Amino acid sequence: LDDATDYSVACGIVKQEMEKKSKLLENIGKRILDSLYLNLNGIKKATVKIKKMNPPVGAKVGSVSVIMSR
């Protein structure tokens, strides 16, 4: 258990980064990954998916998303 990831810390990191304004989903994903690697020990690989509902893209689109891994 000493090597286990504290997912409550990970959730807090994601919440903190999602509260920051950003125009690009890619910027949010990079910030989340950077912060996870900075604050959690032992991460070998992380994947995040950020999804925006009803984005303002000039067409009727239900959602857009970005998946990033490191």
Task: Describe the structure in your own words.
Helix 1 runs antiparallel to helix 2 (25-39). With 70 residues, the protein is an alpha+beta fold. It has a two-stranded antiparallel ribbon. The protein starts with 6 loop residues before the first helix and ends with a strand. It has 2 helices and 2 strands, in the order ααββ. The model has no long low-confidence stretch (mean pLDDT 92).
The tally of strands reads 2
Give the rounded overall mean pLDDT.
92
Number of helix segments?
Answer: 2
Task: Walk across the major sheet and give the strand order.
Answer: 1-2
Query: Which structural class is indicated by helix and strand composition?
Result: alpha+beta
Please provide the ordered H/E string of secondary-structure elements.
HHEE
Radius of gyration: 14 Å
Helical residue percent band? 25-40%
Beta-strand proportion: 15-25%
Largest sheet: 2 strands, antiparallel
Distance between the termini: 24 Å
Poorly predicted tracts of residues:
none
What is the 3D form?
elongated
